[in-house]
UniProtKB/TrEMBL annotation, chains A, B, C:
InterPro entries, alphabetized: UPF0047_YjbQ-like, YjbQ-like_sf
Protein name per Swiss-Prot or TrEMBL: Secondary thiamine-phosphate synthase enzyme YjbQ
Pfam families attached to this UniProt entry: YjbQ (PF01894)
């Protein structure tokens, strides 16, 4: 069994953003030389997400509005977590969007459906954060 | 290490449905000959879900009502994604229910709890869609 | 390829609770002897969750309030599932928080970010329930 590990670093200037990281994950899979296996991609931070969906700006706008409705940032003081912090809502948004994805590796490629793209979801930006790519297989 | 890959195809006539696919996943595991490992089951489409929960019709009715409350289909024009489409809500419902499950494989069986069943969740039916089953192990 | 399997048992006296199980998962990884691979941790019950987030009591209070707002327990009769049961809301809360996490194993350790902790989320306590730890690798 072979394994491969790489950290991808981000520093998003805005509080929230969705970034398509499929090319970076593809590159790590190519570098790994693994042809059959599983590829885990996870946020290493608890106010960020890795998820799979569509690379369509209208949808990303809708996600932003929808997550803000389900877990509003304001008023900041509504959350007990926000003592010296203001990111409780980010911990909630990330649970809806998910921490991680596991993608099959087949014939040396990410085995994704036609519209599946891997995203980094930032919900509390303005600081350096990491995504872990871990691939195991042969 | 052995690996096994199979696509399961669906064409749900209604917009939304929950379909128990545990028998199909069981059959793929048996065909794989894998005794110890991990089994990934994921929707290959971004308006569908694979999740694990109870095979109980009352609960499925409740899920349907609840998801519609959290991410309403109507009015369609409330979503910026819906330009020539009407499925923005389906992209949201799928994030709540999840894209994928990873199930342990132990002694050649899906290592599920007593009530755990694997479901395909369709949120934008009326077209052919796929679920990927990928099993790795020995 | 090596594999390791262990069930962790819980009997939470309250209806809902979040329990940090990172030490137990760490112990299973040490016992497995696996140095590189993937570690699946999943609830074996469908009204419970395994998720990764912060071990901070204010946040856990906020999660409790937030989940109750998104999927209220009362009135119990609002849910069709609640025939001889009162836990429909628990099936919903668990979908938001998720069934499982997959954690990379690197150099014999859980490859977690600085604040990542693994939690058992109970949403319908007062009974014995299990979490499955399955580790594969070398």
């Amino acid at each position: 069994m072979k394994s491969w590990r790489k950290e991808l670093w981000f520093n998003v200037p805005t509080r929230r953003a969705f970034i398509n990281i499929t090319p970076q994950v593809d590159a790590e899979l190519a570098a790994s030389g693994i042809r059959e296996g599983l590829c885990l991609v996870n946020a290493m931070h608890i106010t960020a997400s890795v998820f799979i969906n569509d690379d369509e700006s209208g949808l990303h706008h809708d996600y932003e509005q929808w997550l803000e409705r389900l877990a509003p940032h304001e008023p900041v003081r509504q959350y007990r977590h926000n003592v010296g912090e203001d990111n409780a809502d980010a911990h909630m948004k990330r649970q809806i969007m998910g921490r991680e994805v596991v993608v099959a590796v087949t014939d040396g490629k990410l085995d994704l459906g036609p519209w599946e793209q891997v995203f980094y979801g930032e919900f509390d930006g303005g600081r350096r954060k990491r995504v872990l790519v871990k691939i195991i297989g042969e």
